[in-house]
Amino acid sequence: MRIMIFTEVLSPYVCGISSYVDALKKGLEALHHQVLIVTSSLHTKQSVFKNGIVRCPARRCGNKYGYECRNISDKNTIDFLKSFRPDVIHIHTDTRIGYMGLLLADKVNKPVVFTIHDYYNDRFSDRSKFVWTIKTMIEKKHFCDMIDNADVLTSSSRRASLFIKNAGRKRRVKLIPSGTDIRRFDYRNTKEVSVLKMRRKLEIPEDTVVAVFSGGLTVDKNLEFVLSAISKYTERGENFKFLIVGSGTEEEYLHELCYKLRINDRVMFLGEAAHSIMPQVYSACDIYVCSYDDGLMSMSFLEAMACGLPVLIKEDKEKFVRKMIQDGVNGFVYKNEKEFAKYLKILSNIDDFQKMQIKRVVRRTVAGNTSTAMAEHYIKAYQKAIKARRLKHFA
Q1: If you write DSSP's letter for every residue of 93-162 in order, what string do you get?
Q2: Which of the 8 DSSP states describes residue 63?
Q3: How far apart are CA 217 and CA 115, in angstroms?
């Protein structure tokens, strides 16, 4: 099968979607399918094809990524994409690259699969209620355009059905568990020398407990919650650091907040990091932290768990995370800052023997979430989309 994937962002951009697409591509190719990724980049003035990826020129804008494709109807790019002769178009974003996917699907009359990764209502942090409302209305339209034009909808969480309902649509979502490169994200494959080297690079003492977050620094990640909890429940001089990996629209604000809360000595910003070094980064840390309220299954915490890190994750309204995280087994689910601090202290005080036991247990809980297993699920979704498009054609 020939699959064309559209995503506004891709590595080296650090976020769950770029990691997700990277894992899916590897899984599909391992099953001997042909994959072409179409994405955008601020570092090219014309569309460039290399290693199965087409990177289109991008411009800076105010969306959650900070940029978007400049021209989605460039004739040379469209002609090149048509020459790939895709069997299915798989879209992972409702930004301009997503619309390029819809444009191409219409031109070649091929089915569309749209994967829901986030909720349009959480993409902006404007302090002005009026501006936030206007931007949300625009984002809702984009979200609904993808839903209305897709033959099959997929997601990693049942929560996506609530997103669709809140957007005023009635569509079924095919649930597909996220997958990652389990072999690469394996603490047993990361040498102790590499861990110590990463710690020295980050200037973190060996006896310091490190909690880490990795992903796009956007408003929906709710990192304000973690910073507030750290300011209230950790002390200056403690053997504790919070490492933030990634960049995004909230980065400057989060830097300012750390100084305002006087915790800049306990919080480190690594910025964007190549996906290839993330196993070493996770292995140099002790705990993974999630603080969003309505995000779907995070690729970064799946990678962190594959590296053996227990997860501290905020409870969502529907309590879906309770199905993934068992308190005291592979992490803890917290409801408020006080519980966050309580569980952070528990995980910070375990000895080396307990830490190794927890690593083994945590990794076992995600052992089945491989990129190949995810790809196998998607092949079924593609086949369903192809069948649905044929039925529409003959209707």
Answers
A1: -SSHHHHHHHHHHHHHT--EEEEE-S-GGGS---S-HHHHHHHHHHHHHHHHHHHHH-SEEEESSTHHHH
A2: S
A3: 21
The answer to whether the beta carbons of residues 8 and 40 sit under 8 Å apart is: yes
Per-residue pLDDT at 130:
65
Instruction: Provide CATH code, domain 2-179+370-394.
Output: 3.40.50.2000
Tell me, yes or no, if the two domains 2-179+370-394 and 187-365 fold the same way: yes
What tens digit of pLDDT does each residue of 80-101 get?
999 999 999 999 999 999 999 9
Task: Report whether 373 contacts 179 (CB < 8 A).
Answer: yes
Dump the DSSP string for 183-233: TTS-GGGS-HHHHHHHHHHHT--TT-EEEEEES---GGG-HHHHHHHHHHH
- In angstroms, rounded to a whole number, what is the distance separating the alpha carbons of residues 210 and 230? 12
End-to-end CA distance of the chain: 25
Q: What is the pLDDT of residue 238?
A: 83
Least confident of 10-14, 230-234, 275-279: 10-14
pLDDT tens per residue across span 208-264 = 999 999 988 887 788 999 999 999 998 887 889 999 998 888 899 999 999 999 999
What's the CATH architecture for 187-365?
3-Layer(aba) Sandwich (3.40)
User: What residue segments make up the domains of the chain, in order of their start?
Assistant: 2-179+370-394, 187-365
Q: Per-residue pLDDT averaged across 135-163, rounded?
A: 88
